[in-house]
Design a protein that fits this description.
- By secondary structure, this protein is an alpha+beta fold.
- It has helices at residues 3-8, 16-29, 33-40; strands at 13-15, 41-42, 54-59, 66-73, 79-83, 89-91.
- Strand 4 (66-73) and strand 5 (79-83) form a beta hairpin.
- It is globular and about 30 Å long.
- Bound molecules: zinc ion.
- Residues 60, 62-63, 65, 83, 85-86, 88 line the site of zinc ion (ZN).
- Zinc ion binds next to loops.
């Protein structure tokens, strides 16, 4: 990634530590969301990352929040993401 892209899309990636904190805060703010995530995805722990490694984030156009990677989709080869504003989950 070049610095120009970073500046144009400031929410395009985050460190593993930032991702974990964002998902934890989102789960804490939405009742039952931890159960939903656990039921629909596999933890990222099966493929541990260095804490400084970067993860993609995605803009959620529906609410203006940011979608953070929360795990891997169980049935599809996709990444499972959760929105830090509305708590909606999706596949990427
Ligand atoms: Zn949202």
């Amino acid at each position: 990634m070049t610095s120009n892209i970073s500046q144009a899309y400031p929410y395009a990636s985050e460190t593993e530590a930032e991702r974990a904190a964002a998902v934890a805060a989102t789960v804490a703010g939405h009742a039952g969301l931890d159960v939903t995530i656990a039921g629909e995805s596999s933890p990222l722990g099966s493929s541990p990352l260095d804490p400084g490694e970067r993860r993609w984030t995605y803009h959620h156009g529906g609410c203006g929040g940011t979608l953070h990677v929360a795990g891997y989709a169980r049935d599809q080869h996709a990444v499972y993401v959760v929105c830090d504003r509305c708590g909606k989950t999706a596949l990427r």
